[in-house]
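User: I'm curious whether this sequence folds into something compact or stays loose and floppy. Could you predict its structure so I can see for myself?
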Amino acid sequence: MTDEPGRVFRDAWIAGVKEHFPGEPKPGYVAPWEDMPDWEREAAAAVYQQIRQFVEISAGGATKLTREQKGRFVAICWTAQIHRHFEAPKPSYVADWDALPEWQRATDIGIFEAIE
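Assistant: Here's the prediction. I'll summarize afterward.
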């Protein structure tokens, strides 16, 4: 169940990192699905499902969101997963939208649009 949705999320993440990250990304940012830790695969699948459900129950309303709103949704869902899997995450792992680097915001927007 988590494999396919998680892979879709991960593929969108990697595509965004490759397009938007300035310089050479950390290996973990572009690691293949098989090399990801279990918690991260679970989190990717969960956020994919949240986006899909949000799009479906909005009955077309999600298409009217701004690109920033779409990215913010992804970031909030991911932050909730970080809190689920880590008792005391690093502040950078749970940073609010305004504190995220531009490349990460652009990547989150792309994730929403790929799943949408």
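Summary: The chain has one domain: 3-18+37-115. The CA atoms of residues 20 and 103 lie 5 Å apart.
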